[in-house]
Amino acid sequence: MVVVLIGVLALLGIGLFATRSAFSPLLATQQLASATLLAQQAALAGNPANALTIEQNTDNFRFTVGPATANPRVFEIARAGTSLSVPGTLPLTLNFNADGAPSTGANLNLTFSGDSTFQTCLSSRGAVYAGACQP
Question: What does the pLDDT read at residue 42?
Fold first, then answer.
């Protein structure tokens, strides 16, 4: 009986971890938040790497901090069936001012959708948080 129970649990466990696509939107959301914070820190320090470019191609999401600098920092994560929607079109370049806030002065909602959906808000004051932007 114990062997049968372990076998059933093993089969259920393999099904949970066999696909990464359920976690891909969450991972992409976290990677975007990290890249955004890095660009904001550069802006606060007066560093010229105060911009972030967000792109998606057929296989990957690419977040580039300091795209116009000599040493841009590029972060890539596999899309794995996930898509990104933003107001406007991609690629999207965000510039940050000396206070770490986006130069657009407006809230920006970014939504990663796949097997699950995750939203990230970049507020007009520079805060990056999970969920939809509050008015």
Answer: 93
Q: Which residue did the predictor score with more confidence, 89 or 6?
A: 89
Average pLDDT of span 64-91: 91
User: Does 48 sit behind a cis peptide bond, omega within 30 degrees of 0 on the bond before it?
Assistant: no
What element of type H or E holds 5?
helix 2-17
For residue 43, pLDDT beyond 70: yes
User: What is the reported pTM?
Assistant: 0.80
Q: What is the DSSP string of 28-76?
A: HHHHHHHHHHHHHHHHHTT-S--EEEEEE-SSEEEEEESTTSSS-EEEE
Task: Kindly report the backbone phi and psi dihedral angles of residue 42, in degrees, each rounded to the nearest multiple of 5, phi listed first.
Answer: -60, -40
Strand partners, 76: 62
Separation in Å, CA 125 to CA 25, 39, 64: 24, 14, 21
Residues 6 or more apart in contact with residue 10 via CB below 8 angstroms: none
